[in-house]
Design goal:
This protein has 380 residues and is of the alpha+beta class. The chain contains eight helices and 15 strands. Strands 2-12-7-6-5 form a five-stranded antiparallel β-sheet. Strands 8, 9, 11, 13 and 15 form a five-stranded antiparallel β-sheet that branches. The longest helix has 27 residues.
């Protein structure tokens, strides 16, 4: 397994179960009435702020078919540029059970327990982004509800849910934790900080969602999630000083084969696919130059050196990048794929790959819907 899939997993898991070391029950110090009134007022304000943040995010959603939904996803890490890993689709993606999505999903994509997934996601990433912050109350609740073996998956898990689910999670969360029989002042302050950090995380997730596209081939049982992030500026030495600074972007492509034996949308047989290559068109915004569109046509050289095989339930994720003169642009394209036998092995560039010589009826292009490239210093 690649280091991208293993990096810091053990560290994250051990950090996330630190509550196990709490064996003693210290004397409870309840807040005084005046302090409690002030704390309750602050809690009520945070409750309204979170609900307002969700409402604003929904109103500013750029999507048509997914305008009532949001994809919560791990942030892009510049250190993973050029990396790749295999995952299991059922472990790395939660796709909500929502009737409004029926034209865009199959039965095998639909999952329940949306609120628990949302709470688990925010609990994980709030603490991941704030190493000194401990959230024992929410930790205890989440750990009682989810399988401990699934904890490490939170590091790579996408959670696709509706904004209605987000609002209900906030309401249920405030209601549930306020009913705790004994809460010390420190407990209340801990929950309030969790609400504050969750609001910040929601804003970060909304910005990621603005730079994400979801492409679904329901007939074949394939899904592509593409997300980008600006990771800084880069200098090109051979250009003049006015042209040598570019915006560097990284993008993450996640390809999922969500076929299952009992999925009526994809027939009776499992389908296995191999990624053979990719084609991209990258268009810079506000550019008058004729070469403002960058074209990449590499249908037989895989992705970051890999030609992965995706059996039913498999997921392959990789990160690559591009440079733009302007701070914003749009990227779209396709992955070149082949329908292969289930005993086909993944390959790397330079290995013999039978699928490259497959008959035309076995070959196809899987479109990747446009996704935005937005510099941190640029405008949307």
């Amino acid at each position: 397994m690649h280091r991208y899939g293993l990096r810091n997993r053990a560290k994250q898991v051990f950090a996330h179960v630190r509550y196990l070391s709490s064996f003693e029950s210290p004397k409870v110090s309840l807040p005084k009435k005046n302090d409690l009134d002030k704390l309750n007022q602050t809690t009520a304000k945070l409750y309204r702020i979170l609900l307002k943040s969700i409402r604003i995010s929904k109103n500013n959603s750029p999507y048509g078919q997914f305008q009532d939904h949001i994809l919560l996803q791990p942030p892009l890490n510049r250190r993973d540029y050029g990396s790749a890993q295999f995952l299991k689709s059922s472990e790395c993606t939660h796709w909500c059970d929502d009737e409004s999505l029926l034209p865009f999903q199959s039965d095998s994509m639909r999952q329940e327990d949306n609120r628990l997934e949302i709470l688990s996601f925010f609990n994980w990433w709030v603490q991941n982004n704030n190493e000194t912050f401990e959230n024992k109350i929410v930790d205890d609740f989440v750990m009682e509800e989810i399988n401990p073996e699934a904890i490490a998956n939170l590091l790579v898990k996408n959670v696709f849910v509706s904004y209605d689910d987000m609002r209900e999670t906030v309401r249920e969360g405030f209601r549930m934790f306020s009913k705790e029989s004994v809460l010390e002042k420190s407990d209340i302050l801990e929950l309030q900080r969790f609400a504050i950090e969750s609001s910040k995380l929601l804003q970060d997730q909304k910005e990621l969602w603005d730079r994400t596209s979801i492409s679904i081939d329901k007939e074949r049982g394939l899904r592509i999630i593409a997300t980008s992030s600006c990771i800084g500026m880069t200098a090109v030495r051979h250009l003049s000083s006015s042209q040598n600074v570019k915006n560097r972007f990284t993008y993450r492509i996640r390809i999922e084969n969500f076929n299952t034996n009992n999925d009526p949308f994809v027939g009776d047989d499992d389908q296995t696919f191999q990624v053979l290559g990719r084609s991209w068109k990258i268009l810079e915004d506000d550019s008058n130059e004729e070469d403002s569109e960058i074209t990449v046509n590499a249908p037989t050289t895989g992705v970051v050196g890999h030609l992965p095989v995706l059996r039913p339930g498999d997921c392959f994720e990789y990160m690559s990048g591009c440079d733009l003169k302007n701070p914003t642009g749009t990227m779209r394209g396709s992955l070149h794929m082949a329908l292969v036998d289930d005993d086909t092995k993944s390959a790397q560039v330079g290995d013999p790959v039978d699928a490259l010589h497959a008959p035309k009826e076995k070959l196809f292009e899987l479109p990747v819907q446009p996704f935005r490239l937005i510099s941190t210093t640029g405008s949307k």
